Amino acid sequence: MNLNIIKLLNAELPPEEVTHLSLVGATKSEMQTWVASLSMLNVGETAKQLYITLQELLAVEDIPDPVRYELMEVLRPAIYTIIESLSKHYINQNVLLDQRAERIAGLAQQLRVYSAMVYRGIALRTAENYQAQNFGLFAIGKKKSMLQLIGQATHRGLTEFFRLLAESKLLYLPIYKGMWLRLHELFNLAEQFDLGSFSLRDENQIYGKALTIQQAYLRSIFMSTCNTNKLRQAEIKKISQLSEIWVDLLKISAAPSQEDLFLVDTAIDAPPMYITELKEITPEMFYIDARPLLAHFENLNTNDPELLNPAEETLLSATLKLHLLHTLKPPMERSSERHPRKGTVYLSLGLIGTHYQTSGQQNFETVIQNQQLTANTPHPGISNTFQIDSDVIYTAQEEQIRQNATREYLESYECQIVNISMGGYCIRWQGTTPSVLRSGELIAVREHNSSTWSIGLIRWVQQHLHTGAEFGVEILSQQGKACGARVIRQDGYSSEYMRTLLLPEVKEQNRATTIITPTLAFRSGHKISIRLGSEEVRAQLTRELVITQSFSQFEFVLLQSLKDEQTKSNLLATLAGQKAEQKKAAKSNAQDEFDEVWNTL
Asked: Its domain of life (predicted)?
């Protein structure tokens, strides 16, 4: 969290104390020549020069605002190029950035916020001058040009603030104090001059759509409602990109209706809230009707959707479509309360790490007892055979990345509990986070006084100033059994074995026995072979309960043809948790819940 950005956002218009630009002349042609001379390969030096020039443009005197706007438009492509180069040092890194990456991210965000504040200053000063004018009959041209400048600067300012907000979401950071006030301020300014429908093209947008000022504002509104802390960075980036074509389906109005989902109070420094949270109507409020966008997200979740753009098909996974659909539905009340709690938990991340811990830290080949799959492994529990390790896919050129991920998956991490509920934990991570800590990841959790690893899902991730990263874990099962599974194709051949986990039935919650699998290889309807030790059973995957970028959770039915029906009945009863012997065993040793299943096999 950059304190200089907070200070800048919460300051009034700065006094014009700079007499001239130190690195470039104050004409459009001079700025064009100077920008053309900048080396985009020398990122550090160019970023420094752009930073200095933006600071001076914000505070320089004797530059008329129409000229200031022209200078900013010449600078803007270079700023975007440098920010893109800088972002490679802090995007797709660990949740908690190291000091160097954090400083680079701070520099990029300051370039963004200085740009936004220059545009804001142009809009506010021009609006003030406009109101002070007494336009005569022959000043219609001047009046029109001033209104156009207000519209252009407001549009650009909203766009830069949106990009700052989107990047904060991308880094799981809280939104800077004062930023929503700046967004609301520019939108109110546009509404005051009836410029909500003023449109402006932006060469930095992916799809080239000329958005109106209302739509530029609504992009920030939309991003703030997307629960991005439950998504991975790649997914957040896709939503940010596609918001360009989706905002046309959001409607904003100063008058409430029964169909509104969100409201925005422009008098406070806050994002939109659900209409159900409304306590008192004030004149500063605007209301968001999301019904057309909700209908579109429902359409995207059908088997044959009508697309607004082909990119929706290529960029949106089934998981992301479902997430978007849920964001535009009224919020559900929590099924269980959170309770503050102090304590320590141990974590292991990913399907590989979870499998390793629940198997008693055995390697995969030992779990399935298949000597043909044995390989010389650089780390315990991980095979270097591509087919076996297909739940984490790396190319040959990414071997070092693979080795780093391997170490992170096999590590057991110690973290602090923030609060606890019937459904899971809020956990705080201090220090450097591993790259595999991300939303949607499978996780094994063990409290310090327990020997049992629970199986969970990381639902959300959030950074907090001075306290590190916090993340929410939903517990899927109090225990699991490590095994292997492969898909049986229609031609009779099978895929290679992959790591899977069996989760026991929970009768109290009417939850059947389920299996955790890698995401890409397994689908509903697939016939599979489940293996533990030297024993196998055939099954068919039925309903998919959970799907993330890392794993899927399925219900399944057994297909095994056993020699006698009594044995088959025993097997089914055991998996369903109906046998008296299993209940007795579960009480004496919860970790062995599946042992009788495999003995029956």
From this structure: Bacteria
Phi-psi region of 18 (alpha: psi -120 to 50; beta: other; left: phi over 0): beta
d(CA 583, CA 34): 78
- β-sheet bridge partners, residue 443: 349, 456
Q: Is the pLDDT of residue 394 over 70?
A: no
How many other C-beta atoms can be found within 10 angstroms of the C-beta atom of residue 424? Answer: 21
Cα distance between residue 480 and residue 544, in whole Å: 18
- How many beta carbons lie within 10 A of that of residue 588, not counting itself? 7
Q: What angle do CA 351, 352, 353 make, to 5 degrees?
A: 95
pLDDT tens across 91-140, in order?
Answer: 988 888 888 888 999 999 999 999 999 999 999 999 999 998 887 777 78
Region 75-97 average pLDDT: 92
3-state secondary structure of 427: strand
CA dihedral 420, 424, 430, 435 (to 10 degrees): -170
Pairing type for strands 514-518 and 551-558 reads: antiparallel
Using an 8 Å Cβ cutoff, are 263 and 272 in contact?
Answer: yes
**299-300-305-309 Cα dihedral, nearest 10 degrees:** 120
Q: Using one digit for the tens of pLDDT, what is the confidence trace for 204-216?
A: 889 988 999 999 9
Taking the CB of residue 459, how many other CB atoms lie within 10 A of it?
Answer: 18
Task: Put the strands of the sheet holding 251-253 in their side by side order.
Answer: 251-253, 285-289, 262-265, 273-274
CB 429 within 8 A of CB 415: yes
Burial class of residue 95, CB neighbours in 10 A (0-12, 13-18, 19+): buried
Q: CA-based diameter of the chain, in Å?
A: 100
Q: Is the predicted pLDDT of residue 291 greater than 80, yes or no?
A: yes
Q: Are 363 and 410 in contact (CB under 8 A)?
A: no
Assigned architecture for domain 339-477:
Beta Barrel (2.40)
| Cα gap 398→405, rounded to integer Å | 11
Is residue 555 within 8 Å of 542, Cβ to Cβ? yes
What topology is assigned to 481-600 in CATH? Thrombin, subunit H (2.40.10)
Res 579 pLDDT > 60: no
Which pair of structure tokens corresponds to residue 258? 């029964």
Residues 6+ apart with CB under 8 A from 355: 364, 367, 381, 482, 499, 500, 501
Span of 122-126, 383-387, 435-439 with lowest mean pLDDT: 383-387
Distance between CA atoms of 26 and 45, rounded to whole angstroms?
Answer: 21
DSSP character for 377?
Answer: -
Residue ranges of domains in the chain:
1-195, 228-331, 339-477, 481-600
The angle subtended at Cα 307 by Cα 301 and Cα 309, nearest 5°, is: 130
